[in-house]
Amino acid sequence: MSYLRIIPGLILALFCQMAVAGAYEDMLEAVNKDDVAVVTQLLKKGLDANPTDREGNSLLILAAKEGSLKTVKTLLAARAQVDAHNAIGETALMLAALQGHLEVVRYLLVREAQVNLPGEWTPLIYAAVKGNVNVSRLLLAYGADINGTAGNNGLTALMMAAREGHLDLVSLLLASGADPNLKSYAGLTALAAARAANRNDIAELLAKAGAQ
Questions:
Q1: Residue 188: band (very low, low, confident or very high) from pLDDT cuts 50, 70, 90
Q2: The dihedral of CA 141, 84, 122, 73: what is its sign?
Q3: CB < 8 Å & 24+ apart, contacts of 200-207
Q4: What is the pTM of this model?
Q5: What does R_g of the chain's alpha carbons equal in angstroms?
Q6: What's the confidence (pLDDT) of residue 118?
Q7: By C-alpha distance, which of 62, 18, 65, 59 is closest to 40?
Q8: Closest CA to 129 of 143, 150, 113
């Protein structure tokens, strides 16, 4: 008799788990499409705004990475955690900066997303990977530490921009006060990074700025 009583409960629990999983898949699809109507509907049905995938990415992180501004706004209105980290320490602001989603970056900053992450990779360094000048300028306007370093290797935004060959961003960072003589933990400077990338134009610019 006890087994007969337990089985219906197990079936109900399994059904509930399947329903939640299905709703989460629907939410992921809506986030990717920036379908704010579906996102809003699922939130009203009780779906949490802060679940994560296997890599620890929250819905907000995924929406920011895709540049889904309307969904970002909706999730934050539903109390999504603005500074949630995924499994490797990335935030919504970092990934929006990396992908160059200027308006998403702007909105996250307005909602007080952390622009400086001591001991971690920063949104400014992420923006430097792809040379996103406008995003970098906005981050600096909101107080980004121009000489902030990545926690695991000591790279700065200037070193990253030089290494990746982004002349315009190197120019902006230097004009904004970036130190051209900082070294990574391995002893790399922005000038050495530019020379290694065969970017003589960037190397010349750095030398004029006092790089040794």
A1: very high
A2: negative
A3: 201/167, 202/162, 202/165, 202/167, 202/170, 205/167, 205/170, 205/171, 205/174, 206/162, 206/170, 206/174, 206/180
A4: 0.87
A5: 22
A6: 81
A7: 59
A8: 150
